[in-house]
Amino acid sequence: MAEQTEKAFLKQPGVFLSSKKTGKGKRPGKGGNRYFKSIGLGFKTPREATEASSLEALDSAFVSHKLDTGSPTIKPLTEVGTYIDKKCPFTGNVSIRGRILAGTCHSAKMNRTIIVRRNYLHYVKKYQRYEKRHSNIPAHISPCFRVKEGDHVTIGQCRPLSKTVRFNVLKVIPAGSGGGGKKAFTGM
To answer: What pairing do the DSSP bridges indicate for beta strands 129-140 and 113-124?
Structure first.
């Protein structure tokens, strides 16, 4: 069953949910109980986007990597292939084409949208020097990813998803425990 977070019933288009067969459920995939796809370009579909079909896969999917305390954490059921997101590149109706960019997550306060900051240097000919500049790019993030401020993300261009969002998160590389990734006060 899908994770229901809205008043309207959420379901994937093209997936029939009312099967009369009581035997073994269909395999997940194109034509199964859950639709997902490979976006290509060398990016792997996350396990959280696909539904685990066997008990061993469920057990391995629930235990995530160890935190600073050294004990494994348990993921809730909602993280293993039960979300519905029509703007997800892996389970929705969005194709990735155009530019592939990398940046740092600057803000993750919006619902399923993050701000990606890209720093670059601009050359000033008059002074023969470079100046620091940056650009902020809003990007949609699927519920299959967990992101915090300071994490490095790879985003891919897609069709316009809203007034300002034209990119989708394809990969998240967690930052080290360096204070959240933003500049900390260094003193004098």
So the answer is: antiparallel
pLDDT tens by residue, 113-139? 999 999 999 999 999 999 999 999 999
What is the distance between the alpha carbons of residues 126 and 130, in angstroms, rounded to a whole number? 10
Q: 32: which 2 tokens?
A: 């199964």
How far, in Å, CA of 53 to CA of 29, rounded?
10
- The CA-to-CA distance between both ends of the chain, in Å, stands at 56
In sequence order, which residues have a C-beta less than 8 Å from that of residue 174 and are 6 or more positions away? 148, 151
Helix (H) or strand (E) segment spanning residue 59 = helix 55-62
Q: Rounded to the nearest 5 degrees, what angle is found at the Cα of 14, between the Cα atoms of 13 and 19?
A: 115
121, β-bridge pairs: 132
